[in-house]
Design a protein that fits this description.
Strand content: 5-15%
Strand order of the largest sheet: 1-3-5-4-2
Largest sheet: 5 strands, antiparallel
Radius of gyration: 32 Å
Structural class: alpha+beta
Shape: globular
Helix content: 40-55%
Distance between the termini: 62 Å
Number of helices: 19
């Protein structure tokens, strides 16, 4: 038995035009009509509807009057009937779930990634069908009932497997509870098969059934059904096809090598060299495109298939290799990981050149490197007996630093590590202000971010991990371990989001590149030089909590920018409630460099800037500082206006007002009420322009197109 199942758009009305419209109606019409004439086919129509219990069966209706209907009337009848079935699914399931927000004005969703139905078929070999027919006493109707029974068992097991994987509580789904559309194609078919169509909601729990790994879940259930109906179905089809092809490819590849080598030892060496080359490239820290390019240099082309498989073609070798072709288990894991990363990257192309995973990986590695630097210094100053405690403390610092940069670290006792990206929750109940989206560590290129590497690096034992999990569950829902997205409540006023953090890291690096900065560290002293070799900043550590900072007053503005970036990086590792206070030394002269630093802090979009405070005598009445703030505000308002004009043109209806137009300054304590009012007025003016633009666009949509007359020539 071969199982085919795919996700199709949640749509029905075939009178709508466009991609993915009329999914249910068009599929039913395909099943019951002749492929060439498109007329009703008594031979192909063996239809049964069991979705809406309040509606009569369309199959029985078509048996009586289907042949008398022309193509148009048949389409209209099927469309009207299917719309009622679609309405039942919408009211009974979709409206009672979070998926209701995906419905458009037609109560449909044309994007199968957001909301879908299941469409598929179970194909039986002639031997399998004859076994079913024999068990039915030669009664074809009973044989069809057995085929439908196997289909129902498959879908029920599929739902139960998803509930098991995602730890969804509730009773198991029974085969007779499946709400199904089925149609048999038996006569004249090389492989008799049953088509099915059903919604993606479990009838017992009302939950949306969307597995994490679609192909793997289908395969697991296929194995279960093969065992359950072993007396009728051929065994090993669920897993054997790909593996058998891979083993055949390995045998053919080794035979090919033997024809071009002197002996088996040379063949074995070449095969091991190929495995070694693949392992070396795939396990590197390079991004995916760089790995693919490196393999191409070595004469290997690699192609990822939709069913989580991979094709590897060696130059001048007429044999295609796959994951199961290889023997090395670590290489197999690396190839499977590569497939997952590649598929995730393909799904994320809408984010531009840098995918969300790459941005998050950059932020996580930056946090890890900062913690490692401080840890290595501390380990060199304390006896080995205190290393365990220092490493535990460093892990907590890493956890808190990641949290402060918009990522929650979740490590369990099996050393499975996941990172949860934190975003503001704008769609669900207001009591949960944050949304956490799960990313497994296997999606990242760097081996340093694997669960095993993190646990080993920080010396974490079972007690440490248990304590970490206990602290995590104090504010996170239990569903965090098996749900892709969870919602919870936490104060994040001083936390950056991941993309904000990535932006600031890039800005920090751009700043160093722009000024051509070089950093020299010597014991407790750090000095930053510009491109000309001039010292901009010198930081000398006095004790654990104090440092003396010297700034180049000739380059006060640039020195302030660099110092601010360095201080923000330090502030990210500070515990909650602690901050950095900058005050003039006892015998220092001039305050201009402090004014520049204060400007950088107050206009920064990095939330960690709030932990840095500049203080000096008579600061509140410093007129020169106020003039500088006014000038800087004028420059920023002009920049905000340019941002608005640039980005609001693309899609005014969905434009969101954020930091790019200065919303972070509306609650700034450093600005006077008059200055905040200037920012507010500009934003209000921009909102009014957006409303006018949207109203004009909507008016143009509602106006009918002018009619034109055709002229005969």
């Amino acid at each position: 038995m071969i199982v085919k199942m795919k996700k199709v758009a949640f749509s029905c009305d075939n009178k709508r035009k466009g991609k993915n419209t009329g999914s249910l109606t068009n599929h039913i019409l395909y099943l019951i009509t002749d492929k060439q004439t498109k007329a009703y086919s008594k031979k192909r129509c063996n239809l049964a509807f069991s979705l809406n219990p309040n509606q009569p069966d369309l199959g029985a209706l078509l048996t009586h009057k289907g042949a008398s209907l022309n193509q148009h009337k048949l389409s209209e009848l099927v469309n009207t009937y299917c719309l009622e079935q679609h309405r039942y699914i919408t009211l009974h399931y979709v409206k009672n779930s979070r998926k209701s927000k995906q419905l458009d004005d037609y109560q449909e969703c044309l994007d199968p990634q957001k909301l879908f139905n299941y469409q598929g078929s179970l194909s039986f070999t002639q031997d399998e069908y004859q076994r079913l027919l024999k068990a039915s006493g030669g009664n074809e109707v009973k044989a069809k009932s057995m085929m439908e029974n196997i289909t129902r068992h498959y879908l029920a097991s599929y739902y139960n497997q998803i509930k098991k994987e995602q730890k969804i509580k509730g009773k198991k789904t029974k085969p007779e509870e499946i709400e199904l559309v089925s149609n048999f194609h038996i006569e004249g078919e090389a492989n008799p098969h049953i088509h099915f169509y059903t919604h993606a909601f479990c009838p017992t729990t009302q939950r949306y059934m969307n597995p994490r790994y679609f192909s793997e879940t289908k395969q697991k259930v296929h194995k279960q059904i093969e065992k359950q109906f072993a007396q009728y179905l051929e065994q090993g089809v669920a897993t054997g096809q790909q593996k058998n092809q891979a083993r055949t490819a390995r045998r053919d590849y080794l035979t090919y090598l033997l024809d071009h080598c002197q002996n088996w030892l040379e063949v074995r060496k070449m095969f091991r060299d190929l495995e070694g080359l693949l392992s070396e490239v795939l396990n590197s820290d390079d991004p995916l495109h760089a790995k693919i390019a490196e393999l191409q240099k070595e004469g290997l082309s690699i192609k990822v298939k939709p069913n989580q498989q991979i094709e590897i073609q060696q130059q001048d070798v007429p044999i295609t290799l796959s994951i199961e072709t290889f023997i090395n288990r670590k290489l197999k894991r690396s190839l499977k990981r590569f497939v997952k990363q590649h598929q995730f990257e393909q799904q994320s192309q809408r984010y531009g050149n840098t995918t969300p995973v790459e941005k998050m990986e950059t932020v996580l590695l930056n946090n890890l490197n900062a913690v490692n630097k401080a840890l290595s210094q501390e380990l060199g100053q304390i006896p080995p007996s205190e290393h365990k405690e220092a490493k535990n403390k460093a892990f907590k610092t890493f956890y808190e630093r990641c949290l402060a940069t918009g990522v929650l670290v979740n490590l369990n006792k099996q050393h499975h590590l996941s990172f949860h990206k934190l975003d503001e929750n704008k769609q669900v109940s207001s009591q949960n202000n944050l949304k956490a989206t799960k990313y497994n560590a296997s999606l990242f290129n760097s081996p340093e971010l694997s669960g095993k590497a993190i646990a080993q690096h920080f010396g974490l034992d079972l007690v440490d991990i248990h304590q970490h999990q206990s602290e995590l569950m104090e504010f996170m829902p239990r569903t965090i371990n098996y749900r892709k997205v969870v919602f919870f409540s936490m104060d994040n006023q001083q936390h950056n989001h991941v993309y904000q953090e990535y932006f600031h890291l890039n800005r920090y690096q751009s700043l160093f590149d722009y000024f051509g900065l070089e950093v020299f560290e010597n014991d407790d002293e750090t000095t930053v030089f510009n491109r000309k070799g001039e010292s901009l900043i010198q930081i000398k550590q006095i004790d654990e909590n104090h440092a003396r900072i010297t700034m180049n007053t000739l380059h006060g503005a640039s020195a302030a920018k660099v110092l601010h970036s360095m201080l923000v990086r330090e502030a990210k590792s500070l515990p909650i409630g602690e901050g950095i206070l900058i005050k003039p030394a006892k015998y220092s002269f001039g305050r201009q460099h402090l004014r520049y630093l204060h400007l950088e802090i107050m206009f920064s979009t990095d939330r960690h800037s709030q932990k840095i405070v500049v203080e000096y005598n008579n600061m509140s009445s410093d007129k020169k500082l106020q003039r500088m703030i006014d000038e800087k505000l004028e420059q920023e308002l002009a920049r905000f206006e340019k941002n608005f004009v640039k980005y609001s043109k693309k899609n005014p209806e969905q434009y969101q007002f954020g930091e790019a137009v200065g919303t972070h300054l509306l609650e700034s304590e450093h600005l006077s009420p008059e200055q905040r009012e200037r920012v507010e007025k500009q934003i209000e003016s921009q909102k009014q322009r957006i409303e006018q633009c949207t109203a004009k666009a909507n008016k143009n949509k509602t106006e009918p197109d002018p009619k034109t007359k055709k002229l005969k020539l």
